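INTERNAL AUDIT FORM
Audit reference: QA-55
Scope: verify that the stored structure record matches its stored sequence.
Auditor: D.O.
Record contents follow.
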Amino acid sequence: DLVLQYHGRDVQKGICPFSRMHRIFDNIHKELIHVAKTHSNYAGGGKTRWRGEADLQVTTADPRLIFGFKLPPANGHEDRPNLLNFEDPLYIAVKESVELVGVVTASLQDEQPRERINHFAEGRPGIDSALIDAALHAARRFIPQKEKTIDSVEIGGQAVPADSAVDLGRAEWSRATQALAETRIPKDTADVVGTLMAVDYETMRFELRSIVNWEIRSVRCKYAPEHESIVKSHGKKQVKIHGKADFDRDHNPRFVVVEKMEPLS
C-alpha cells in the first residue's frame, strides 16, 4: 500500500549502517501510526491492539533504504482468524490514514497542496482538520533534512493517487511547512486541560493528552511564538489552553489554535 525509497549519495550500494536504517524505519512507522491514532474513528484498544492486529505489515526493508508497508489483514487471517473486520473503527482509522498520507505526499507536488487534500476529505467524516494536520506533519517528517548523503524520498504504492510514485525533496518539504503554517482558523472556541506532550518546535505543534472533562484521548494543538517558553518548560506537565477549535461529531475538541496558555503544575 505504501513504499518509500530514499535517494542520495551512497544509498544504492546495498549496505547501510544499522543505526541509520533503524532510525529511518522507526521514524516512518512512528509517523504512520501517529496519524492513525489521530483519526477521529480511533476507538482505543490499548497498546495490545496497536502492536498486534492493527499494526502495519512490513513487506520490504532493504538496506538500499527501501521500505514497504501494507494494511493489516481484515476479516481474519489464515493463522490468526477474526483479528479485524472492515467495519472495525481501528481498521478504518488505519486504512483511511494510510490513504490520506498517500494523498498528502502527492499533493506536495502541487503549488497549493491543501486543495487536493480538502477535495479528498470531502465525504469522509473521519478525516478532519486534526488528521490532515497530522498527515502533513508526517509527510514533512518523511523528507530527509538531517540525514547526510540522502537527498530525497520517492513514495509510491496503492495509497498514492494513480498508483504513481512521487519524489519529495527540499521544495516539497518547504510546501509542507507552508501548508502547516496556513492552517484554517476555526470559528468556535474551547478550553482544554491536559498533559503537554509530543512537541514539535519547528512547526509549533504539540498534543494535549490525559484530557480532563472531555470524552477524547488527545487534542492536537498549534501554538504561537509567545507560548514557547511555557511549551519548553512544561513538557509532560498539565496545562490549560484556550483557543479556536474544531470539534468532532460528539462535540469534543480535536484541533485547537491556541490563543491563551496557562501552566497548572
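Auditor finding: record pair retrieved intact. The first strand starts at residue 2 and ends at 7.
Action required: none
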